[in-house]
Structures are given as C-alpha cells and as structure tokens.
Amino acid sequence: MNRTVLIVDDEAHIRRLIERALEDLEDEGVELLTADNGEDALNLIVEHRPKVVFLDVMMPRMNGFDVCYRAKHEHGLNDVFIILLATPAP
User: How far apart are CA 63 and CA 66, in angstroms?
Assistant: First the structure.
C-alpha cells in the first residue's frame, strides 16, 4: 500500500502548517512530499502516485484544477485522492 502524502501550495507557511498537522504520520511510515507549484506537483503525482494530495487551487505554472484534471484524465490516476484547498475571499 502506498503511504505517501503530497502537500502542494505556493505559500511556504501553508505547506509548513499542513506538514506540522500531519508529521505524526511519519512515525507510522507515511512519507510527506511537498511542492510549491502545479507543474512540480503533477510530476510528483505521476512519479510517486501518492495516496492523498492536498492541492492548492491558485498556484503558479499550473493551477490546482488543471493538475487534478490532468492527473485523473490524462494519466488515469483514479486511485489518488485529491483534496483541493482554497482560501476564502476577504
């Protein structure tokens, strides 16, 4: 079973916050990966096939919707669970 989680956000403090929330999983053998843009995220998803992806919607180089679409439709990664993250408007 794949025990990898990918955290994708262009804001470093958001990535660190999610990493901290999930860091106890590392003691259980879960590998935490991170990316700061959509293009790198898609490459990591295809290469590592993480079980779960926390994916920001608004990012440079490729937005979260496009990453999700390409992972699911172009690469057929239906076994990867993608949770889209969005910041509410002020």
Answer: 5
Structure token pair of residue 41: 């995220």
Domain ranges of the chain: 4-85
Q: What is the pLDDT along the chain (90 residues), one digit of tens a residue?
A: 689 999 999 999 999 999 999 999 999 999 999 999 999 999 999 999 999 999 999 999 999 999 999 999 999 999 999 999 997 767
Fold of 4-85: Rossmann fold (3.40.50)
- Residue 12 burial class via C-beta count within 10 angstroms: exposed 0-12, middle 13-18, buried 19 and up: exposed
Q: Which of 42, 24, 39 is nearest to 82 (CA)?
A: 42
